[in-house]
Amino acid sequence: MAVKMLGDANQKWPTSAAILKLLAAAQIHTRNYDASASSLKSALEIDPEDAETHHLMGCAFRRTGRTDDLRQHFRIAHEINPQYPELP
User: Fold this and answer.
1) CA 2, CA 25: separation in Å to the nearest integer?
2) How many CB atoms lie within 10 A of CB 36?
3) Is the dihedral of CA 65, 69, 73, 75 positive or negative?
4) Does residue 44 contact residue 20 with C-beta atoms inside 8 Å?
5) Statement: residue 88 has pLDDT above 70
6) Is 81 helix (H, G, I), strand (E, B) or coil?
7) 31 φ/ψ angles, rounded to the nearest 5 degrees
8) Roughly what angle, to the nearest 10 degrees, separates helices 17-29 and 2-12?
9) Which domains are present in the chain?
10) What is the reported pLDDT for 87?
11) Cα–Cα–Cα angle for 74, 22, 80, nearest 5°?
């Protein structure tokens, strides 16, 4: 239900990084990791310096076993905002 609603919101506001992050979090929750990574990639195209988006991307990649990618995004998140752990 949340994924559908957020997908509809993304259609209406396609340049909203905030909506894309929420959509990605809902996709992670429903174990749709590839869709989540796609939503997060779009969010990073809008706001490449958002630490939370990089952290969420790392979480999505962790679930799919993409170790090199997850490390890269966790590292970037930590560099932008040291409150995010390099590797949780």
Assistant:
1) 10
2) 26
3) positive
4) no
5) no
6) coil
7) 65, 30
8) 160
9) 2-80 (1.25.40.10)
10) 78
11) 30
Residues constituting the chain: 88
Q: What is the DSSP letter of 13?
A: -
- Taking the C-alpha atoms of residue 88 and residue 43, their distance in angstroms, rounded to an integer, is 22
Measured between alpha carbons, how far is 54 from 74 in angstroms, rounded to an integer? Answer: 6
- Token pair listed for 35: 């869709």
CA distance 40 to 12: 17
The structure tokens 């706001």 sit at 47
The predicted-structure confidence for 24-82, as pLDDT tens digits, reads as follows 999 999 999 999 999 999 999 999 999 999 999 999 999 888 889 999 999 999 999 99
